[in-house]
Amino acid sequence: MTSCVQLLGHAYRLRRSTPALPVVDDTAHRAALTQAEAAAAELRKAGVGSQTGNSARPALPPRLFDPIEGHEAAKRILKRALLAPRPVHVLLVGPPGSGKTQFLQRIATLPNSRYATGPTISSSGLFTYLLEHPATQRLVIDELDKAAEADLYVLLTLMESGKLTRLQHRAIEEETRIVWIFAAANDDSAFPEPLRARFVRLEFRPYSETEAEAVIERILVKREGLPPGRARQIARAVAARSRDPRDAVQIALLTRHGEPIEAVLEQVIPEQSPSR
Questions:
Q1: Is 142 part of any domain?
Q2: Among residues 42, 85, 100, 237, which is most buried (max CB within 10 A)?
Q3: What is residue 169's predicted lDDT score, i.e. its pLDDT?
Q4: 0.85 exceeded by the pTM?
Q5: Which of 228, 271, 220 is nearest to 246 (CA)?
């Protein structure tokens, strides 16, 4: 029979031989999750999304965000928001070419998702837009900073109460909708503060030249199928003038038969232009 002393000795040796797990600083990640949990708690108090039919969210495609290079923390937050049992709204803020639109486009591929831009919804009004698309569960809005002010307040009411409200022919029209909002803006400083407070805000900083070169090269090889040498050549030339991978894709398409890139580069990204 094994004695207590033998068991203790074995436990001590096992403890000493087990490598320590690395410590990961996820302060920013946890702060965003705290925001998401607080937003969900407020919605629960308001009774939004309390229906049992909305309590179970469908599984996400396991490789939903794989085509996007980097931004691992943003990917984790967005996946949690998409799987939340009640609406958690997320705003992506950052300069052009930092990856915001790629995230929105991927979310828009999910069932019952609807992609729009700020100017698009303002042409008909957000109330009418959602009325015309009643199955929408996820509203994906790019360029939200270009939406009309009236639509921003319609959006705020929807996020606060789960209701769409407007004054029409001296009567108040109201629709109940449970919708997740995923939006992007280059700059959110002009948004009403109550609207900003309803979002979990993810800030996308611009790529450095070195980061842009690496990201562009991977995109050109993995998504556009370019040979590594050609991808590296285009990535190096583009990153010196622009941080936007879309510029590199355009140049790759325009020189797909191996033509010199210099003349095309000058047309797509003139050297005197500031980095975009």
A1: yes
A2: 100
A3: 62
A4: no
A5: 220
